[in-house]
Amino acid sequence: MLTAGDQAVIDGLIPFPAGIWNDGRVSAIKQEIHRQLLIIQNNNCCYCGLKVNEAGRAEVEHIANKGGLKRPAYVEFVFTKENLAIACQFCNSSSKKGQEDIMLNVDLANYSKCTFKIVHPYFDDPGLHYKWSNGKFKILISSSSPEGIKSIRLFGLDSEAHTLARAKQVMFEKKLERYTKRIQIQNRIADIFKFRK
Q1: Does residue 146 have a cis bond before it (omega within 30 degrees)?
Q2: What counts of helices (H) and strands (E) characterise the chain?
Q3: Percent of the chain predicted with pLDDT > 70
Q4: How far is 93 from 109, CA to CA, in rounded Å?
Q5: pLDDT score of 196 more than 60
Q6: Consecutive H or E run containing 191
C-alpha cells in the first residue's frame, strides 16, 4: 500500500504521539492513503455502502478511534492498514462514532486480535449482520446481531436520509445497467452489419 519511503517515515515516528495524524510530516502519506482507499472501496463508504459523494465527502476513517491532542485514543493503530477505511462525512461525523469507544477487547500489540462492538469493514461479513427487507435491492436495513444493531444505531443506517440515498443509488444503478445493455446490443448489431459487408 505505501512505498518503502513512506513506511520509513511512519516507522520513524513510533511511538506515535497524540495528534500525529495532523502532523505536517505525514500530509503526503495521508493523501496517498486517501487516494488508494477510494480505489479499493470503489468510492463506497465502509459503513453505509453509499457512494461517498452521495452522503458527504470521502474521509479517511480510523475504525479504532485515533482521538486528538487533548483526548488521544488508540494512537498505536493510526497507520494500521486494517484500521483505515473511507467513510462518508455523514457516517464519520464526530457526533457518531467519535462519541463512544467501539472497541470490545484491545490488544495494542496486534490489531487483528482486537474485537469490536460494530461491524468491522474488513473483519466481518456484512451479510451475517445486516438483513435487507427489500430483497436484492438492499434498501431497508435491519439486524439481529449485536454488532449489526450497534452499527445501525451508531451510523444511522436505518435513518430516512440513508434509506432515501440507498433508494436513489439503486435507481441510478438500474438505469445505468439498462443503458449499458442497450449500448452493448447496439454495438453487437453494428458488428453483425459490419460482418455481413
Answers
A1: no
A2: 4, 6
A3: 85
A4: 28
A5: no
A6: helix 160-196
Pairing assessment for the beta strands 103-105 and 84-88 based on DSSP bridges: unpaired
Residue 141 CA: distances (Å) to CA of 56, 133, 153: 20, 7, 11
**Assigned C-alpha cell, 117:** 462492538
Specify the amino acid at residue 60. Answer: V
What is the spatial distance between Cα 51 and Cα 172, in angstroms, rounded to a whole number?
11
Q: Which residues contact 83 (CB under 8 A, 6 or more apart)?
A: 62, 63, 64, 74, 77, 111
pLDDT band at 135 (very low <50, low <70, confident <90, very high): low
The chain-wide mean pLDDT, for the chain, equals: 86
**pTM (global) more than 0.90:** no
The single residue listed with the C-alpha cell 440507498 is 166
Q: Which three cell numbers stand for residue 116?
A: 469490536
Looking up cell 474488513 gives: 122
